[in-house]
Design brief:
alpha+beta; 434 Repressor (Amino-terminal Domain); binds zinc ion
Length: 158
């Protein structure tokens, strides 16, 4: 962007802006490089900056809250952009269970939470490794016996 959308003048300068996000009883702050119009003062954040801030807060929550509150779980799910029933399906739990977690009526189990943490890491890294594993496991219905021809393995991205 070279011209200010608001006033039409050129002359956008790089500035550091302090972004704040409140989630699950905490306030997260981060310095983000934005552009500011020298004429009218309008500030332009880079595309997806706020979605990324949410994901980074979600990452912090998954790494620092071994037993998340329902509110924290819900925030992280939303940062991942996953509807409740979709995440429940991925984690192999009933949607009603996930609903109880989010309402704080039942503690979130450690392993599902660990998988949520992996989903957040993947999303930040722009990959789908954990999701692919979970989806494949949820769909796989191979015969229980018989011959299996193994495909050439595709190396996983690091
Ligand atoms: Zn302007």
């Amino acid at each position: 962007m070279r011209k200010c959308v608001r006033c039409g003048r050129s002359g956008l300068q790089k500035v550091e802006t302090e972004q704040t996000l409140t989630a699950a009883g905490r306030t997260f702050t981060k310095s983000i490089e934005a552009r500011r119009c020298g004429s009218c003062g309008e500030t332009y954040l880079p595309a997806l900056a706020l979605a990324r801030l949410e994901l980074e807060a979600a990452y912090w929550l998954t790494r620092n809250q071994p037993a998340p509150s329902g509110e924290a779980f819900r925030f992280v799910r939303k940062a991942l952009g996953l509807p409740g029933n979709e995440l429940a399906h991925l984690l192999g739990v009933a949607p009603a269970t996930l609903c109880r977690w989010e309402k704080g009526k039942m503690p979130v189990q450690m392993l599902p939470w660990a998988f949520v943490a992996l989903l957040v890491s993947d999303e930040l890294a722009g990959r789908r490794r954990t999701r692919d594993v979970l989806e494949t496991m949820r769909q796989a219905r191979p015969p229980s016996k018989g011959r299996v021809r193994l495909p050439d393995l595709v190396p996983e991205p690091t």
